[in-house]
Design a protein that fits this description.
Distance between the termini: 39 Å
Largest sheet: 8 strands, parallel, barrel
Number of helices: 15
Shape: globular
Strand order of the largest sheet: 3-4-5-8-9-10-11-12
Number of strands: 12
């Protein structure tokens, strides 16, 4: 397979990745409540390095405790976290796999409130609650903006000191940076709101601050939603930004110091288009009930739809109405091509990639330079190795059922599609629990 474009090295200004397959950021509750890492997290990331991924983009790594989606995520909020992340990077490097930390802040989009969020509402660009879950928030003051920018900068410094290969800024999927970028969310009237330039200012200050701190020889990339599709679920909501607007963000991020750009879509998570595939409402009733303490008002209609079987078709009609226009695999390839034609740094694209022919077409026809894969990698941790043998897809491919998504609030992040285990629930549970072997990190 030496001539396969999927398995050609990818050169960035400050980084070389052995192939074009990245494990995309995907989050699981593997860590301690205080944000310190565990052996389970190390085992989890190592699975994909051993499975042939050229690079791993870490799970959502909060830059401070108020920026986590939910508890039990390893953070990068203090220098005492550096040794753990150094161990993760070193474990991945044994398999010639690069490790890129995704620096993240939830903003108002907090699925489960930790102890800190019972005392404070979420930080955001706005004081309006989010329209899907009803999550409360308060517009950040300028002093708070300055503080959070510095926390991103400090996180990048710690990642470099840990010997990691780079950092990615999570500026997509409705989290804090998206809340500043999106015209459908940001309602500020100061220099951080209003015009396209003002909405970009927060991200721009983070990028330039990181470059000033770590220098120009450390890999930095940003994951940005190319289209918000803010009204993909409820048609009466604001649509947010389109390609004509977001191309400014990509080009300015390159100008300010990004070595690569990661293209995604959607201004909330989960979104009807991402993650690709189905929404398993047969399991969503018990899953969504866990968010009762997180949202207000907007939470109850969703829970009602999810909990009562007779009402589920109504919600699915709304959820699926925009999905018909998009493929499952390569859901935002066209948006990625739009961006790639207008920037000069390598472009990574996420969104349901699994089959070799689709990935190969994305690369050879200049939709992107590499693909980032999440859920198909959960189904088959060795996906990259399988494709390198010349196979079109794994023997038991991901079904895109998204049961991994609805289980993650309570259970280890894993594949929960019983069909892939021939209905053997013991085999499914055994595979999910492999992340805890070996059991301890010191």
């Amino acid at each position: 397979m030496s001539d396969d474009p999927i398995f050609q090295p990818l050169e960035f200004p400050n980084l070389t990745v052995k192939n074009r397959i990245f494990r995309s950021s995907i989050s699981g509750k593997f860590d301690n409540y205080d944000g310190s890492g565990t052996q389970a997290r190390l085992n989890w990331e190592t699975k994909f390095a051993r499975g042939g991924a050229g690079a791993i983009i870490s799970s959502f790594v909060p830059i401070n405790v108020r920026g986590r989606i939910q508890p039990n995520y390893a953070m990068i909020d203090n220098d005492d976290k550096i040794p753990f992340w150094r161990a993760v990077g070193e474990a991945c490097h044994k398999y010639d796999c690069k490790f890129i930390m995704q620096l993240s802040h939830s903003g108002r989009q907090q699925d489960v409130p930790g102890l800190e969020n019972h005392l404070h509402v979420g930080m955001s660009s706005t004081s309006d609650k989010d329209t899907f879950h009803g999550l409360l928030c308060k517009a950040m003051t300028k002093d708070e903006i300055k503080m959070v920018v510095q926390q991103y900068v400090d996180g990048a410094r710690r990642a470099r000191e840990a010997g990691l290969d780079g950092v990615e800024l999570h500026a997509s999927h409705g989290y804090l940076i998206t809340q500043f970028l999106s015209s459908g969310i940001n309602d500020r009237t100061d220099e951080y709101g209003g015009s396209v330039e003002n909405r970009y200012r927060f991200l721009g200050e983070i990028i330039t601050g990181i470059r000033k701190e770590v220098g120009n020889d450390f890999h930095l990339q940003a994951k940005i939603s190319a289209v918000d599709y803010g009204n993909a679920l409820y048609p009466w909501e604001k649509p947010g930004d389109d390609l004509e607007t977001t191309i400014n963000y990509f080009q300015w991020a390159e100008r300010d110091g990004c070595d690569a750009l990661h293209v995604s879509i959607g201004s909330l998570f989960p979104h009807p288009l991402l993650p690709s595939g189905a929404l398993p409402l047969d399991e969503a009733g018990w899953w969504y009930g866990s968010m009762a303490s997180s949202g207000v008002r907007g939470y109850w209609p969703n829970y009602t739809f999810f909990h009562f079987r007779a009402l589920r078709p109504l919600f699915l009609a709304l959820w699926n109405r925009t999905k018909k226009k998009h493929p499952i695999e390569g859901v935002c390839m066209d948006a990625s091509k739009w961006v790639k034609e207008r920037v000069n740094v390598p472009v990574i694209n996420t969104g349901g990639f699994q089959r070799a022919s689709v990935i190969r077409r994305a690369i050879t026809e200049n939709f992107c330079d590499a693909v980032a894969i999440a859920r198909p990698f959960i189904a088959n941790n060795d996906l990259a190795n399988v494709l390198e043998t010349g196979a079109e897809e794994p023997e038991r491919p991901c079904s895109f059922c998204n049961r991994c998504l609805v289980n993650v609030m309570f259970n280890p992040l894993a594949c929960y599609d019983l069909r892939r285990f021939d209905g053997n629930d013991e085999a499914m549970i055994k595979e999910a629990m492999t992340v805890f072997d070996p059991p301890h990190f010191t």
